[in-house]
Amino acid sequence: MRQFLPFLWLSLLSLCVFSQAASDPDYHEQLVLRPLPLSALLASFNFRSNTTVSEFEKGNFRFFPRSLGQILQHAGTRELHLRFSLGRWDAESWGARPWHGAREGGTGVELWAWLEADTDDEADRKWLTLTNALSGLFCASLNFIDGTRTTRPVMSFQPEGDHSSDANLQLLYGVLPHEVVCTENLTPFLKLLPCKGKAGIATLLDGHKLFDASWQTMAIDIRPICPTNEDCVLQIEQTVDMVLDIDRSKRPRDNPIPRPPPPHELPCDTSKPYHAHDTCFPVDHTANQDWSLSQIFGKAMKGTCPLTDPDVPPVCLQVPNTRSVFVSEGVREKKSPDQLSRCFEIPPSNDFEIVLPPPDDPGQSPSAVVVTPETPLLYAERSFTGHGQERGGVRTILRNPSPDSVVEFIYMETLPWFMRIYLHTMEARIAGHSQPDKSLVQQVYYRPALDRARGTQLEVRMRVPPASTVFLTYDFEKSILRYTEYPPDANRGFDVAAAVITVLDARALGNHSSSIDGGRAKAAYYLRTTSLLCSLPTPDFSMPYNVIIFTSTAIALAFGGMFNILVRRFVAADEGPEVGLGVVIGGLQGRLQRLVKGVRGKR
Amino acid sequence: MDGAKATPGRTAGPYVSAAVLRLAILTLLPGLPDLLTGRVEISTPVTSFKRLQEGLFLYNHNVSPYDGGVYHQAPLFLPLFSLLPSFSSFPIFTYLLYIAVDLLSANALWRIADSGEAGSSALFSSPRREKRWSGFVIAALFLFNPFTVATCIGRSTSVFTTCAILHAIAKAVSGAPFGAMVALSFASYLSMYPLLLLPPLILLCYDRQRSERATKSGLKFAATCLSLVAGVLAVLFQMSYLVTGSWEFLRSTYGVQLTLSDLTPNVGLWWYFFIEMFDSFRSFFLAVFWLHLSSYVGGLTVRIRRQPLVVLTLLLGIFAIFKPYPSISDTSLFLAMVPLYRHVFPLMRHTFVIAAVIMYATFLGPAFYHLWIYAGSGNANFFYAITLVWGLGQSLLVCDLMFAVLRDEWEVERPEMVGKEIRQI
How many other CB atoms sit within 10 Å of the CB of residue B287? Predict the structure, then answer.
């Protein structure tokens, strides 16, 4: 025993040392704050942890959440992407999306995953397991992603991770546009983090603020990464992006009703010709660009997560370096060489606070107050055309802002089966031309909907010439459903999922034009349109019995009338036995009399 | 007024004017065809021209049109319309095809009328048979019926079924059982329900056989006809299989009619009933509705054995009311056959009520549909109520015609009862 103990101590010690050494680079978190024009603030939270694939397969989870890891192992999932989103990204004023759109989803819940399966049936079974398990884990209705909401995109999504080429991977994609993302989805999201939202930047995530944002998206991405000459690691990346309305966030929680500011506090655009003491045109870009972290998020940040990689600064702020920023004591500020951002290194146990005072000179140019947003590669807007509940059309307006380069992209729609689209009416037209241009649409992948079995999948590979706008339109017909298939709020309409646009990398296009045909083009930018609300014709829900009775009566009248004529004999009106009320009464009288006589006779 | 004596110019009159009328509407009112194609009264899921175009588009782009929820029409339409020049660039060829089909139908009707079968069949001659309209009038009544014109302009594919049925009858009355059976097989292939017309049509063929090569045995004759229909249908299905490459089309064309999975509103009684039906009873009532539709065939064929053409007419009227996806095209076919019975019109009892109810439903139907779908000031019950009225009006017409024909038969036995009041016991 005595000989054994030191060995035990030694092994325990080595285990601790080993784990300590391994822990350092395996987890980091970062919050990037970027003020946007029109008194908005983009907050991007990013949490990333790695675990080696061999450890993962043995069931040794460290920073990787065990609950999620077991689901992935059980459902044979090699790569997973899950999105919870709300609101609309205003590209016209806010510019390009964070992460080039790769970490966002359409309104509602989106899930896509690469599953290891040899047959379609096996993939469907695993997908069912996955959606049901995730549904329980994230308190979302992911189990409603059934056959009608599942598609297998052909061109749109490419795996982010490194997969061995001999694995039989199937991509399945499901979307729930109707799902309302809320606090119950945030809590399990935070539980997956190593610090569980108790320390570090995750302490700022609060349901009241997150779901009050103008736009927010929570993303979970799991992918295997195989660096050359090293072990493969499984990486989980959790991202929360939100655009806060500074005005709205600064309202105290106990007094949330907005009141107009007094006239002397209104920031006015003095350059307008009609500016006077009683008229004011509000200044968009510089208004309300003063805030502090605790005002915006309702609380200060509580130190840093002790498990995080100390080399990655936990908070960065993207404002021009000319602006002054005040931070808490003990925080080291590091300005980046491009003059547009600075990062903060925070002592582990102190509370952290940033105060951004109002710009020194209210009349200075917007670019001195906020970083000018990057222009996105493509603007897209989708809407319904037509009126009435019988048929309609979908029109997507795609605008290429670049003055000299063509944008090539894949436009993907997953539509519910009750929107019957007519593909022969699909046409793409350049704004200002009356005739459709056949050269805009290069390739179409279409899988028509089957009633009650699967939805429509439409993928269109298109190009938009420089500095032009393209209208993509098609017609559809709204079908009427069985009354049990309508939701309780049938007249609200049915949500139609966002279209996913994958802008292809122009450089990759130029270099490897042959490999693109294999569907391997690299995506440079993703964007999603807003979801749409499609109102279907509704029956009267209150009267199934009445309809059954009325229709049956009409059929009975016809059937009875016809067979009555067919089976009965014709006689003259005065021939044959008497019928009518008189005959019946007479017969009854006779019977009654006989009965009375019989009774008397017995006496 | 006998068709046989008509001069060629006189024969061509209604055809030319009907063709000119249709062409004028199609070319002078370019928005009207698409408007009518979109009307639920004209285009049903199984006859819509827009769905045909979609099916054609998918077919020409190597996507199976039957692997989707839009196209539910017969596969042989696809190569037929693919042979025509593209509709989007040369619509005139499609228009000409539809006009030609209408004229062919009118021609068949003309021949049926001129045969005099309606007044005097092989087993029965009506005492009133002299009082009839010529083929000229009957063809004109068909060609200028607003329902027929609207169907033609709306380019519903039910015109092909109509044409096949009328040709089957025309062949039967002219003593060509082979042609009749082939034409009926085509009609059944296109729309399925004409298969129910087979028993009376076999009887009609049997009665009108040419004497020189008549088959005496009725059973043998029926068996020959049945095997002929089965053979032609098998050939058509095989051709469809070759065209589409799979048997998927059976489920998508006939399966949809049997199970009513597409509940788009139409003028019939099925759609709203099965929207509101409880899920557990859906299959039961589908069976009941189909059984109901086929129950008339036996009863009518047996009871009106002496006049098979009457049975065919009445069945067409019944189908226009009770089939799964009826449209005004089916009504126009029934209304085309009704004038053949000009001689029993005086025996009908409710002509004014019938005319009023049908007019009422014709005008109020589109209005109520608009209130439900576009204005939002009415609900589905508005249009449903009108379809009920429409169905009742037509069933009253069928009943009345049936009554008149039976009374006409009865008065041969009881000539003294002409004009007297009668009742049925």
Answer: 11
What is the pLDDT at residue A16? 43
Q: A551 contacts in B (CB within 8 Å)?
A: 269, 272-273, 388
Q: Closest partner residue to A557 among B53, B381, B395, by Cβ?
A: B395
Dihedral (CA of A150, A154, A156, A158) sign: positive
Domain ranges of chain A: 31-369, 379-534, 546-602
Q: Do A479 and B263 touch (CB under 8 A)?
A: yes
CA-to-CA dists, residue A89 to A243, A318, B81, B218, angstroms: 8, 19, 46, 78
Instruction: Report ipTM (2 d.p.).
Output: 0.93
Most distant CA pair in chain B: distance in Å? 70
Assess B424–A contact: CB distance below 8 Å, yes or no: yes
> Which of A387, A391, A424, A452 is the best substitution to test chain B (most B C-beta atoms within 10 A)?
A424
Q: How far apart are CA A368 and CA B422, in angstroms?
A: 102
DSSP string, B320-372: HHHSSS--HHHHHHHHHHGGGGGGGGGG-S-HHHHHHHHHHHHHHHHHHHHII
Judged by DSSP in three states, A336 sits in: coil
Contact list, A389 vs chain B (CB under 8 Å): 373-374
Choose among B206, B202, B209: nearest CA to B185. Answer: B202
**pLDDT the model gives residue B2:** 42
pLDDT in the model for residue A25 = 58
Render pLDDT for B232-268 as a digit per residue (tens, 0 to 9): 999 999 999 999 999 999 999 999 999 999 999 999 9
> Can you say whether residue A176 is alpha, beta or left, with left for phi > 0 and alpha for psi between -120 and 50 degrees?
beta
Name the E strands within A336-440.
342-345, 351-352, 354-356, 379-385, 391-400, 407-415, 419-430
Scored b (16 or more CB within 10 A) or e, A532-552 reads bebbbbbbbeebbeebbebbe
Residue type at position B196: L
**B379 to chain A: which residues are within 8 Å by CB?**
538-540
Burial status of residue A257 (CB atoms within 10 A of its CB: 0-12, 13-18, 19 or more): exposed
Q: What is the pLDDT of residues A70-122, one digit of tens each?
A: 999 999 999 999 999 999 999 988 999 998 999 999 999 999 999 999 999 99
In A464-499, which positions are buried (b, 16+ CB within 10 angstroms) versus exposed (e)? Answer: bbeebbbbbbbbbbbbbbbbeebeeebeebbbbbbb
Length of chain B: 425
What lies within 8 Å, CB to CB, of A98 at 6+ separation is A32, A34, A42, A44, A104, A241
| CB contact residues (below 8 A), chain B span 346-405, against chain A | 372-374, 379-381, 384, 388, 391-392, 395-396, 398-399, 402-403
Q: What is the pLDDT of residue A362?
A: 60
User: Are the Cβ atoms of A570 and B402 closer than 8 angstroms?
Assistant: no
pLDDT score for A277: 80
Type of residue numbered A363: G
How does pLDDT run across A26-83, given as a tens digit for each residue?
A: 888 999 999 888 888 999 999 999 888 888 888 888 888 889 999 999 999 999 999 9
Residue type, A126: K
pTM: 0.88
The minimum CA-CA distance between A35 and chain B, rounded to whole Å, is 45
Q: Which residue has 């017609």 as its token pair?
A: A475
**Binary contact (B273, A544; C-beta < 8 A):** no
Q: Residue B398 and residue A479: Cβ atoms within 8 Å?
A: no
Minimal-distance CA residue of chain A relative to B65: A448
Residue A129 class from Cβ within 10 Å (0-12 exposed, 13-18 middle, 19+ buried)?
Answer: middle
Specify whether domain A379-534 bears CATH 2.60.40.740.
yes
Say what the pLDDT of residue A512 is.
44
Q: Which of A482, A549, A567 to mutate to test the interface with B (most CBs of B within 10 A)?
A: A482
List the single residue in B276, B296, B424 with the smallest CB-CB distance to A565. Answer: B424
